[in-house]
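DM from R.C. (forwarded with permission)

"hey, sorry to bug you on a friday — could you get me a structure for this? deadline for the figure draft is monday and I only need the backbone to look sensible"
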Amino acid sequence: MFVENLTGAAQHIFKRPEFKVLESYCSVSTQPSLQAPFYLHGDGRIVLGAPCLYDHALAPLFIRYALEVSLLTQDTQHTPEYMLNACLVAARVTARFWVMDAAQDSPVPEAWISAFASSLIPSRQQLNALVASFFPCMADAPPLSFLTEGVWTRCHEWLQHVWPLIGCVESLMTDGGDTRLAITPQTGLNHYGCSHRPRPWAVTFASSTASSLSERGFAAAEYFRIAFMRALIKEEQTEFLAHHADEMRHFLKTFFGLQNQTSVVLCASGTDAALAVLALSQMKSGKVKTILTEPDETGRGIPLAAQGCHFDNETSGGEFVKKLEMISGFKESEDTVTLSLRNKEGGLRPMDEVVLACHAAVVQAVASGQRVLLHVLDLSKTGLLAPDMQAMSELSAAYPDHLDIVVDACQARLMPQRIQAYLAKNWAVMVTGSKFYTGPPFCGALLLPAEWRNRLDHYSLPSGLAAYAYQNEWPLAAGCAGLAPGSNHGLLLRWTAARAEMEAFASVPASTIQTRLQYFLHEVTQAILLNADLQLVTPFVPQRDPLPHDWDRQQTILSFLVRAPEAADIDHPLDFERCRKMYYWLNADLSPYVPVEHKSLAELLCHIGQPVALPHPHAAGGKAGALRLSAGARLVSGEPSHKTLGVDVRMKRETEDARKVLEKISLILNFWSDIAAADPLPSYRPLSHKMYSALSDETGLASSSLAMGSS
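My reply, with the result:
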């Protein structure tokens, strides 16, 4: 109701998701005669003045600052020292927000922004002058002269410990991962084409790769961040993070219905989980021979992690390393064996053939005195479940003391009962909240059966794992003592957002989940089959034991090949490298490169799964690219702003959006030369305000001015 009564600059600001969440916790009123940007009462009530109501450039900055201070000072004792620290935290959060929010060429509107956005802490002398520019807006703030030298000294010492931890959700969400999480200023997106704030104007079916933060996930992350900022001011951040790490591990255990003897390890990503698996497997016998099932259909870094090597130039602990080098403490593994699931034509090999190859590799390794670590898939990037799980059970029973099996279930497209069954076989399981559940990228977990967990009581983890993992993410055990002390705040923030999605999905009855997925998948499958520019990759139906309303026995990842632009038909598909271009261009505004009658479709931002390389005799280089359009948890549960639509209307709109993705692919093929010459970048929002301003009126959401990049 407050937003409807606003006019001018402030009205649009409070419709933006990042402001809407914060405003819901505050009391905000207006006073046009107030010449200051805002006035904050002692009880946290905010009064917005003329600059916030009429100055479009400054309004986002000062409104964000006012909201931050209000949230940090509500229901607290307003000692001078607390007020000073709260103002400094709010200033740094606001400054980092402005840097991420403003267009690249925007002039800095206030001098304190550059100082507070910097990675370097302002000097003790700078602080006084900087604080003077915004301190008078607080009703209970004492005059600066009341702040003693001791207060300023303690404040500056405190800032040296907490400075990197202070930020908005968009900035903190990039912490505790690796370079793939960093936002590219030219696009406003990370390596995966995702945003760390909601992007409701974009069409998103990318859950096989990664998804932008949803309204629901963003709200949950903001609630966590606000509590974290309060803990920083009180110098209680260590206890706060330890508590939430323990709580998150407990949540995952409860969510998947795990027995008391099982344990949960939080991991920055599925690749980090694979590294942890190798460390646990090597504990018992040193060198391990690893068997990977179709690594092209898992994570790109999995083959390196499976050998104990750095898989990026930066670790999730923030250390800079050399990619490909062995990680300290890991034992050099025997040559990795790869189990191929596809033939040279891109078709699936007979499962019996795959099982025989796996069996032969295990027998040969065991006969030579080696321990074996076998990675099996549930599911792969294109939805494959392999090798045959019954055959793997028999193999595991035949070599219980020589074979470790880990299930790569990072797609998380399976019911909790399946995970429970794997753990009962003494198999470890890797999961994420960032694939099917559509949480932000880089939130993984490793689920350990009792025997794997007990190894930590008798052996120590490799010393180099401390660059990737913190003690609070692992069970309390002697073998974890060498890990980095503390917690990964970025990981906990991302898992908090994913948890909100998981809880929303779990609240939907299994029968309803099954029905909604069936409807969507049927409609989209038909649309792919009817498009002459596309060829559906035959869906692999997961072979599972039946359960009541088992939605996980249908394929929720639809993979398809795309006709090469110069080809007459789909028999000559787009090669992998050009398919990657197609993937990027779908997520870009292409309206400048097509005739006027196609601009509406061209400007639609479409984010789907990254292409997977599949062997194909008629594709350039022998590798075709398979794009993926996936059904994720958010498709089932919807967004909070969708409640008024009704389920049937919402599901119909979802299928129409999927058809638009396919139509945009055909549009790109028709104008390939012009688009290729420009090679536009993906962008957080479309170039025109028309699309998302219309969407804002419909859903109550609007875009920010985060950098779009040049196209």
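R.C.: lifesaver. The first helix runs from residue 9 to 13.
me: no worries. Residues 690-711 have pLDDT under 50 and may be disordered.
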